[in-house]
Amino acid sequence: MGEPAGTADDEGQGVSTTATENAATTAGPRRAEPEQAALAPGAGFVPALAAVYRAQLSRAKVSRIPLLFVATFQSLGIMVLMRGVVDGGDEARAVVSGASVLVVAFVGLNLLAQYFGRLRAGGGLDHYATLPAPPASVVLGTAGAYASFTVPGVVFTAVAGSLLFQLPLAGLWILAAVIPLAGAALAGLGAALGLLAPRPELATLCGQLGMSAALLLGVLPPERLPLPVQWLRDLLPSTYGVEALAATFSPGPAWGAILVDLGVCAAVGLVSLAVATRAYRWAAAR
Amino acid sequence: MESAPAQVAVELGELVKTYRQGRARRGGPAVPPVRASDGVSLRVHRGEIFGLLGPNGAGKSTLVRQLTGLLRPDSGTIRVLGHDLVRHPARAARLLAYLGQESTALDELTVRLAAETTARLRGLDAAAAVGESDAVLDELGLTALRSRPLNRLSGGQRRLACCAAALVGDRPLLVLDEPTTGMDPHARRAVWAAVDRRRARGTTVVLVTHNVIEAETVLDRVAVMDAGRVIACDTPGGLKALVGDDVRVELVWRERAPLDVPEVAELHGSAAVSGRRWTLRLPPEQARSAVTAVTGGAAFAALDDFTLATPSLEDVYLALGGSGEGLVKA
User: Would residue B322 count as lying in a domain?
Assistant: First the structure.
């Protein structure tokens, strides 16, 4: 724990360009070599994660709140709009769960991609990169905070939608699993996009497109979509969060399928956060 | 090289870093790569305040970004406190504290949380992070602002808060990239006092500046940089001795210079003219007679102001062949 995850790996990558110079130095007449200063301990994974999470969460007070309202109102608006077209049954479940998960996509995917894009372009990554904190704790702490930002909006949207479409509220406890897992998947994707995009405008664009995809493919009932679009829908991680939530509204939920959906979210979350961590290290030390 | 075997904190050997300028547009001319570090070799002693002076684009920031492990040199060696940072760039974070030019990472945090989070990420435990953050905020006079987010502060105050984040948690080497940009004199003094206290405890400081006055007052030694190269490296006094005992005479005319006065017309030939302002570098006797000439008769009537000064690092920079554009004299 004391050793930052990044350090061990970095230390392994010897740089060949200096090999000859170093060899020359050691072979030459021995000069008064200064003794090596002790390395200060690095930050542990968990304390660094907690520090980043806390700092990011505090940003909500300063600047995130208006955008969280936007995310929630957007979902509410969509549900009210769909109320006129959809009468209940499967379609109502799809609309409510799609609108709820959309809040996660807005904040986790779109806003986080923008944040990391801006941080990378503005030299903000230098600050973290010159601190002995594991890259994974910076990425996970930030992604975790963005996922947390979505909690009030998702809960509010899900409850309001259930009332609007007369769906049972009893299954909503599943949000306790859907928010963190869909949050991990979408925030991981957002972080990776933001860190990999060569320009911040591209990060914004990718985030917006991802959110639009989550909106269209999540809220519209899948039966009405053409087949190629349904395949696209299957590629989007938010879909599995939507389906898990939608299933719990039905009278006899298929728990096996729900577990599989959540498992997909978790797997995508793991992979995308790992990619984001690598992207962070790549972006921070170029 | 140095004769006394003073302990070396930082040693850079033949550092080269080239930036490719992106691909040329179709039909446009190819953009040549820029050598931001062009064979830089330097030695900084332990406990020294060492400055990198030069105009924007001279390669100062590129150099410190390599020193802090953020940028990998194309070739050359970087040793910091006995550690090879080209081979082990990740060790930089455990040896030094870095203040970059940007505050994006901290902008939306309160001053206190910015310092405290940085301390935590620098490896301090929770109690130490709180204690040291409060101590540094107090030291820099930021206690009253500690609950304000950085992006609601003035530029100078925000810079000061970033300094606090850089200073929290002890590190044997501080690398500060233009720490006092935008600060009022009070804040500057607080920063220099804080840096000085750490130096007294044995901390080495590498400082980037393009402010010649600051360079003269706070630095033990200065490397003057131009176009990716170190063109001179010595104490401020030693560098000034390079330009001999020439005196700088600055003349400011009310409207235009009275060129009909023969002595003034003669000075015009050797003056650097910038609007109403003339700058001359003259041996002491000539400076004296120039002053006598312009402070009498018709010339004096046309004169708005004049100053006589011993050489500054700016004069050194110009004498060494630097372009001189972009150096700050305040």
Answer: no
Are the C-beta atoms of residues B314 and B324 closer than 8 Å to each other? yes
Q: Name the residue in chain B with its Cα closest to that of A134.
A: B121
Q: Are residues B80 and B201 in the same domain?
A: yes
Least confident of A176-180, B98-102, B311-315: B311-315
Look at residues B189, B186, B184, B181 and name the one whose alpha carbon lies nearest to residue B162.
B181
Query: Quick one: pLDDT band at residue A25, thresholds 50, 70, 90?
Result: very low
Q: Out of A232-246, B20-34, B263-277, which region has the weakest mean confidence (pLDDT)? A: B20-34
Residues of chain A positioned with their CB less than 8 A from the CB of B172: 37
**What is the least distance, in Å, from the CA of B11 to any CA of chain A?**
11
Query: Which residues are registered as beta bridge partners of B43?
Result: B11
The DSSP-derived string for B295-315 is TSHHHHHHEEEEEEE---HHH
- Regarding whether B287 and B230 lie in a shared domain, the answer is no
Q: What's the confidence (pLDDT) of residue B42?
A: 94
- From B201, B223, B241, give the residue that closes a domain: B241
Whether residue A71 contacts residue A150, with contact meaning beta carbons closer than 8 Å, is answered with yes
Nearest CA in chain B to A33: B82
Q: pLDDT band at A16, cuts 50/70/90?
A: very low
Q: What confidence tens digit (pLDDT) does each residue in B141-183 have?
A: 999 999 999 989 999 999 999 999 999 998 999 999 999 988 9
* Chain B residues near residue A21 by CB distance under 8 angstroms: 13-14, 76-77
Q: What is the CATH number of the domain that holds B294?
A: 3.30.70
Q: Is residue B131 part of a domain?
A: yes
**In which element (H, E) is residue B156 found?**
helix B155-167
The sheet carrying B96-99 orders its strands as: B96-99, B173-177, B204-209, B49-53, B221-226, B229-234
Percent of chain B with pLDDT over 90: 50
Q: Judge whether A254 is closer than 8 Å to chain B, CB to CB.
A: no
Is residue A21 over pLDDT 50? no
Residue A227 contacts B, CB cutoff 8 Å: no
Range of the domain at B291: 245-310
Tell me what pLDDT residue A251 has.
82
Q: Which of A11, A54, A64, A126 to mutate to test the interface with B (most CBs of B within 10 A)?
A: A126
Locate B303 and state its tokens.
């004169």
Mean pLDDT of B311-317: 79
CA dihedral B279, B284, B290, B296 (to 10 degrees): 120
Looking at residue B322, what is its pLDDT? 64
Assess A42–B contact: CB distance below 8 Å, yes or no: yes
Clarify whether residues B174 and B61 are in a common domain: yes
Residue B39 contacts A where some CB pair is shorter than 8 Å? no
| B45 Cβ under 8 Å from any chain A Cβ | no
| B226 plus B253 within the same structural domain | no
CA B17/CA A40 separation, integer angstroms: 28
Q: What is the pLDDT of residue B26?
A: 61
Testing the interface with A: which of B7, B104, B133, B203 to mutate, by most A Cβ within 10 A? B104
pLDDT above 70 as % of chain B:
92
Domain count, chain B: 2
Partner B contacted by A46 (CB < 8 A): no
Q: Which of A130, A139, A286 to mutate to test the interface with B (most CBs of B within 10 A)?
A: A130
